[in-house]
Each structure stands twice: as structure tokens, then as C-alpha cells.
Amino acid sequence: MRRALGLVLGVALAALVVWRLRRVTPELAPPEGAHGQSAKGPTPADAAADAARALDKPQRPDDDEPKTVAAQRERLFGRMQAVLGYDDATLAKVRAIVESNKVISEGNPEVTLHPMKRSECWDTRDRAGLHEAKVLAQQEADEKRCGARHMVPIWGKGRAPPVEVCIDQFEFPNIPCEFPLVYASAQEAAQLCRAVGKRLCDAHEWEGACAGELRPAEDEYLWDRKRRIEMEFFKNEKREKVWAYGPAKDHAKCATGSRKSSKCAGGGWESCGSNTYPAGAFPECVSPLGVFDQHGNAAEHMSLPMKPEELGRRGGLGETEMKGSWFIFARGEAHEDDCRWRAPAWHGTRVDYWNSHRNYHLGFRCCRDP
């Protein structure tokens, strides 16, 4: 009996001590609430972690593969609204352009075989630390400068303000771990960029985003050379060779390991799958300015201004240029793909020509004047 009474008194005394300690030093109290916040409330680190999770939450994709183009498009429109925050009017413009052509899609679902799932892309980006609070804080700062989600500034030498132009981090629809939209013609790509408040990138802007430095348009286009073939030759002759990820070519760092469909020859909706990877699935394939997949995945439309008034920032459009390597480049290299390489006039037309080029491996990304 005495032993039991002593035990009860001991427990009561210990409880009294803990109670007094908590009153004098509340930080000794055990963590309360989610994320281990103290009794005093959330710390700045807690707030940063919560903000990171809030940004992540609406972006995490599922691995659903729609069986029809119509279902594929509906999923895409929903993701654009949830992740990028586009309103109904903006989405109506996008929908009208996409649905005007039966092949604009993520690829023919009957023959397309994506080599990586969306969830695998997200896990890869997680392991690379791309969803940590400090990375997302920098992303948020860039987006404020650019005025749009998932865009980064393209800086000139010395990164001196003001920001001249911004570029999508990912191929359109510009959502991490979603598959690129392909089969849009150059004209439709320009229209889609305008529909979301942006414009098709000029060639030198894409090149600067890749190489890590935007150079003056007057130095990049050689407008004193009147023919495109001359402009291309003399530009390429003296260009700096660099890739988004560094000074040496390494296709393994990028989305280049996929295969063409077995029956795919020159192209075609029925025989060629758009066997792309999810956007941003290769964390090392990123430029110094934070732009992903400028080598591998989808090749990209852009505008080549043939004279100053055709610059995008002046409201103009030039001729078509296709930039960037694409998803089979580790197996079959079709052309050079360093950042500042100026492509020849493949399928060359004006960008706004009604029958401008489209293909199963060809996408685009947009720029914006902040």
C-alpha cells in the first residue's frame, strides 16, 4: 500500500514539474500541429515549407493516358486552368485553335508510346530538389518579374535590369511533367501564344535563353545580308558552341533516348507516335537561366525576323525556324543542336502562312514582354 501511494505521489510530482517548465519555457513543450510547429506558432521555415507545398499541390499529375484525342485535349485544358490559372475566356481561345485541327495533340494516342510516366518525372524532379522551398521561392520571384506562371527572365550580359523578355521554362503548355503539345503549325503556335497573352519566341531569344545570355538582335541577325542562306552561313561560322547544360555535348543529360515508331518514315499521323518525355523530366537538361528541354523532347517552332520590324517585341513575325534537337537524338542525330546554331530553311515559309509546317515531333514554347 505504501509502495503504491509513493508511486502515485511520484507521478503527480513529475507532472507538476513538467507543468511549471512549460509555463516558464514554452519552447520545451512537445511539437504541436502539422509539420512540427512549436506551441508559439509557425516559424518562417514552417511558412516557407507550407508555401512550397501549396505551390506543388495543384501541379502533381496522374498517369492517366486518354484513349482519344478529344479526351486528351480535355485533360490538357483542365491542367492549364488548374496549374496556370487561365480563365474561361483564355481557355476558350486556346480551345478554338486546338480544335480547329484534328491532329493538334500530345500525339496520336493509338501509336504514341511515351517512355516515361508523369509520376516518374515528378519523382525525378523531387530527388533533384526542384520542389524545395528555396527553389520555389526563386521561381515565384521570376514569375513576378515576368507576370506569368513558369516563366523566367532572359537576361543580357551582366543580368542588368530591366528584364527585356521572358520565356516559358517548358514546352507548351508550359507545365512541368506534362507532355508537349505537338502537331501545331508555326501559324497555330503563334496563335496559341497570343491566346495566352504571350508571343512566339524570336530565334535569338530562344538562343539566349539556352546559352545563358541574351545578345542584341542587331548583332544576331546580320540584316545587312539580304538572303537567308547568307545570314545563316555567316552567323554559324563565328558562333560560340555551347549547350544549355554546358560547353560539351552530352545527349544523355536530355530527353533524347526515345525511339521513333517502327513504321514511321518521314512522318504521318497514322504511323508516327509522338514518343516524347514529360516536360522537365531531365533536371540536368536546363539552361543557366532555368529553361528545360532545349535539347531533346520536342523540336520547337520560333520566328526568324528577316528585318528589324519583324521582331516579336515590335509586334512582328518573320520566317519559320525549327530549333532544338528532339527525342531520338541519342539514337539518330539529324542536325547540330548547340544553342546558337542557326537552322537552315527547312519547310521554310512565313510564320503566319496558313500551311506552315507541322510534325509529330515538333512543338513550341512562348515568350512574353513583361
What would you say this structure looks like, in words?
With 370 residues, this protein is α+β, with helices and mostly antiparallel strands. It has one domain (32-368). 32% of the residues lie in helices and 7% in strands. It has ten helices and seven strands. It has helices at 2-24, 44-56, 69-84, 88-98, 118-127, 133-146, 186-195, 203-211, 217-220, 228-237, and strands at residues 151-154, 165-168, 199-200, 299-304, 319-323, 362-364, 366-368. The strands form two sheets. Strands 1-2-7-3 form a four-stranded antiparallel sheet. It has a three-stranded mixed sheet with strand order 5-4-6. The longest helix is centred in the first third of the chain and has 23 residues, at 2-24. It is globular, with a radius of gyration of 26 Å. It starts with a helix and ends with a strand. The relative contact order is 0.15. Mean pLDDT is 87; it is low at 1-40.
Category from helices, strands and their pairing: alpha+beta
Which strand order spans the largest sheet, edge to edge or round the barrel? 1-2-7-3
- Shape descriptor reads globular
Q: Count of helical segments? A: 10
Secondary structure: helix percent: 25-40%
Biggest sheet layout: 4 strands, antiparallel
Overall number of domains: 1
**Beta-strand fraction estimate:** 5-15%
- Total number of β-strand segments? 7
Using the CA coordinates, give the radius of gyration. Answer: 26 Å
Instruction: State the end-to-end distance.
Output: 81 Å
* Unreliable stretches: 1-40
Average pLDDT number: 87
Give the helices and strands as they follow along the chain. HHHHHHEEHEHHHEEEE
